[in-house]
Amino acid sequence: MAMGRMIAAAMLLTYCVVVSGHYEGNPFVVSGRVYCDTCRAGFETDVTTDIPGAMVRIECKDREGQQLKYSIEGVTNSNGTYNIMVIGDRGDDICDVVPISSPQSDCAESDFRRNCARVILTNNNGVISNNRFANALGFLRNEPMPGCAELLQKYKENDDDA
């Protein structure tokens, strides 16, 4: 009976060591937001809107052969922001957040200028926090909203004053 308990305890201890080694410390939390470029300007404006329910994916690839090594998906909340937990240090990988889909049929074209946000998922870079913040990802509205020409002209005038 005592021998059976020792074997069970040894198996449980082995399992705990294997599982704890797999997690490699605290998980990272990658946060970001997804927006609709309502003017098709290529950047965020005063009339840019957030996209709730947008799907995004974190993809981590091998530096050498660009082979996918890790992938996890997430969905934006009612404010158009996402928080995705990533288990394990991805120090040797190149990790990007990419947009997958938008639930808004009139704003579902991924903006090629804002379709990727690089994130560093390692503890070996001097960053103390496990929170990582990705640049915003954008989708383009099918047609610019009314008033966009005037808004973009305003931005151009402000740029000329600089």
From TrEMBL:
A Pfam family that this protein carries is: Pollen_Ole_e_1
Source organism's superkingdom? Eukaryota
Q: Mind listing the UniProt keywords for this protein, alphabetically? A: Disulfide bond, Signal
The record's section on InterPro entries has: Pollen_Ole_e1_allergen (IPR006041)
Q: Which residues form the signal peptide?
A: 1-21
Family according to the record: Belongs to the Ole e I family.
Indicate what this protein is called per its UniProt record: Pollen-specific protein
